[in-house]
Design a protein that fits this description.
Layout (H helix, E strand, L loop, with lengths): L5 H7 L9 H10 L1 E5 L4 E3 L7 E7 L2 E5 L9 E6 L4 E2 L13 E4 L3 E7 H10 L1 H27 L2 H16 L4 E3 L4 H8 L3 H13 L3 E4 L2 E4 L2 H10 L1
Antiparallel strand pairs: 1-8, 2-7, 3-6, 3-8, 4-5, 4-7, 9-11, 10-11
Helix pairs in contact: 3-4, 5-6, 5-8, 6-7
């Protein structure tokens, strides 16, 4: 366990945590756990009891529902990057993870005890509002993801995935592709070869470019059109 003072915690925390008092920040600093993970390490296991809320200090992780078969077709629900929180749903209802979480790149995470977060929610209305806003954003993404997977054709799903990575995860038209082809297929609920064919079609049409592990969206308008009508 790595302990930190209020000043260090304030530097690395954003959003709702900045609404806490000095005393409340110090309590979080005293009880938090700071861990480093290698790429593809399991952070949380589906079915395990939730004891901590996960804060991403550096790196990226995937949240996914594990397949009960051996076909390696887990369903990736979301991708989270720096300053994101995971496990908020357990604050209000179930005390077991309904999904698994693993790292996509080497990552640094802070773990906060669930009871500490619950106590702060009761003590600090501004903090509670911030937590609800973050939880709401994740819920909206889950709804959008469900719509994409059930109503869109293959090209529309891939287009939506690239737009989500660009706008929500990396906030850039050019970004490092942290998902393998198989993971991108799991994010869009399609076969890996179908995903590869769709990506190659986008490249041939000059919609995206891939080079040295980086993706650049060349035609955002076209990609958005495919996402809407695909």
């Amino acid at each position: 366990m790595k302990k930190a003072g209020k000043e260090e915690l304030t530097r690395e925390m954003t959003g709702c945590f900045q609404r806490l008092t000095d005393e409340q920040l110090r309590k979080l600093a005293e009880n938090r756990v700071h861990l480093k993970y290698n790429k593809k390490e399991i952070v949380a296991k589906q079915g395990a009891f939730v004891s901590h809320i996960i804060f991403i200090k550096h790196g990226y992780v995937k949240l996914y529902i594990e397949s009960e078969s051996d076909d390696n077709k887990d369903l990736i629900i979301n991708i989270f990057g720096p300053n994101q929180l995971i496990g908020l749903s357990s604050l209000f209802e179930r005390n077991k993870y309904q999904y698994s979480v693993s790292t996509l790149v080497p990552s640094e995470l802070c773990l906060f005890e669930v009871n500490d977060i619950k106590e702060l929610i009761g003590l600090n209305p501004d903090f509670a509002l911030g937590i609800l806003q973050r939880s709401h954003k994740s819920t909206i993404h889950a709804y959008n993801q469900m719509f994409n997977l059930t109503h869109k054709q293959l090209n529309g799903r891939i287009a939506s995935a690239y737009l989500y990575l660009s706008k929500q995860v990396f906030q850039s038209k050019k970004f490092k592709m942290i998902l393998t082809r198989n993971e991108l297929a799991n994010f869009t609920a399609m076969a890996t070869m179908s995903a590869v064919r769709t990506i190659n079609m986008f490249k041939q049409q000059g919609i995206i470019k891939e080079e040295n592990g980086e993706v650049e969206i060349l035609n955002v308008n076209r990609l958005e059109e495919i996402s809407r009508f695909g």
